[in-house]
Amino acid sequence: MAITLGFTEIVLAFFSFLFEFEWRQTRNASDRNWPVLLQNARRIHEYATQGLTQSGWTYNVKGPSPIWTSSSPRKIFHSLIKNNKYESALVGTINKKVENGLIPVLDHASELEKTLDLQEVFQRFTFDNICQLVLGSNLASLSVGFPPNEYEQAYNKFEEAIFYRQIVPESC
Hints:
The protein is mostly helical. The protein has helices spanning 7-26, 36-39, 44-55, 73-81, 84-111, 118-135, 150-166; strands at 58-61, 67-70. It contains 7 helices and 2 strands; from the N terminus they run αααββαααα. The chain is elongated and about 70 Å long. The model has no long low-confidence stretch (mean pLDDT 75).
C-alpha cells in the first residue's frame, strides 16, 4: 500500500519539525517563547536551514513527487546522481539524442558542406537533454535547420544571468 502525502501533510510535517527544533533549543531555558515560528516568519527558510544544519538531518519525503529537505544541497545532488534509475535515464536520453538529433544535424551539414556554430549545436543538445530529463518532453530544438525555439532562447538568457550572478566578480 503506497502512502501519498498531499501539500497539507507536508506543510504540517515541516512545521512540526520546526516546532520540535525550537522545543529542543529552549527546553532547558526558563524563558520559553512558544510563538517563535511567528517571530521567524520573515526568515522561515533561514530558520529551517539553521535547524537542519544543527541537527545534521536530511529528510526524504516520498509522495507523488519526491521531496528532499536537507541542510546540505550537496547531499541531495549526490543522492540523485548516484541513483541507478537516474543514471540509466541520463545515459538513455543522451544516447537517443545523439542518434536522433546530433548525428543527423552533423550529417546534413556535412552533405551541404555547411559551417556550423558548435557552441549553438551543443547548447541545443544540452537544452533538449535537460527538457527530456526534467520535463519529459522533447522540444527538438536540435534538428536540421535549427528551428527557432522561444524556450531555448529564454533558457540561454537565464543561464547567462546565473553565470554573471554566480561566477563573474562584482567588480566587472
